[in-house]
Amino acid sequence: MSKKPQVKNKEMDNIVSLAKRRGFIFPSSEIYGGLSSAWDYGPLGVQLKNNLEQFWWREMTQLHDNIVGIDAAIMMHPRVWEASGHVENFSDLMVEDTVTNERFRFDLLPEECQQEMKSPKGNPLSEPRQFNLMFATHMGPVADAGSKVYLRPETAQGIYVNFKNVAQTSRVKVPFGIAQVGKAFRNEIVTKNFIFRTCEFEQLEMQYFVHPKEDEKWFEFWKEQRINYYDKLGIRRDKLRFHQHGPDELAHYAKDAFDIEYEFPFGWKELEGIHNRTDFDLSRHSEFSGKDLTYLDDQTSERYLPYIIETSAGLTRGVLMALCDAYEEQELEGGDSRTVLHLHPRIAPITVAVFPLVKKDGLAELARDLERELREDFSTFYDQSGAIGRRYRRQDEVGTPFCITVDYDTKEDNSVTLRYRDSMEQVRVPITELVGTIKQAVKEYRRV
Fold it and tell me: What top-level branch of life does the organism fall under (predicted)?
């Protein structure tokens, strides 16, 4: 085995360890032995996830005058999933090791295993069979065929069935978009790589409705918009790439599709998909519901079914990307070292940490008061335990971009030491100028 995969595996192990140790992500139900594919987000993890969601929402709605939001129900009418093709097509070929009873997605097995119909352990495999990925449940007091519903496997269908409602109530005109953040559920056969592939996850989706003759123009527009979004997050561009779906990869609804992939420690994997879905979705829902979902252009009197350009990203997958991209183990001068998360200040769980140099002589009280004042503008943290260098290291490890130290000079000149995480530079700043200085540093942030 080459050295490179070993290094990458070690890096991933270190990231997973840090995530649990510092309160980002815990195994779900851990005291009962955990539940495969389920994870809980701790105090820092939920803040990171919320910050990412808010960053995306601002980029996709607030900064556009023709994109609005929606929050559709998780459980929908069963006919929705018949119209979308999920009942018929949303399945994987599954095989089972006849000795160990382990289950595998047939298409993800090595080629030699597929040809010989043997598991990675060399045991015979069962015949491939279809395995539907949707979670089914029942609504109402009686569990029968008439009460069967599904936990949604994607959030997009909630947007499509509300197309008319949004168009009529928001007075938007084509081209326009509908954005949504929400949970989705897939009964995945294979769940691995920490939180990368799980049965319960959150999606960041925007469906952009366009004139059928302008689909290719808007498809290229959103490709560019979405790759540039990751620059704004401070993600390293050399870790990102486009992957175009070939004829054998295209979904049944897609005219064209590109994935934005990120190079995780375990390889290049999909972060987000940009798809030209044509008028497939609106035409299917119009057919199955019997409702007219065409759009009437009040300027030209033309009536048509819009084409849809979809951007679909995983929020929880984005959390993993942010952690992996930010993680670094640095060797410093004098034989010292530190672990640091270079998270963009806009998404870091803690923006500013405030420390008193010592706990005595009124410094702790001054630092406490300052931390409370800064809460109005930033996510803050107070720490008075341990040597100041150790406190810096603790904040470096969770990605806090700015640390403030209140010392004896503060009592004399009303200034503090502001430390920058990435460069470890320290400067004196008057307390009256702190908020403005930090806000400007966030606005101008570039990873060192």
Answer: Bacteria
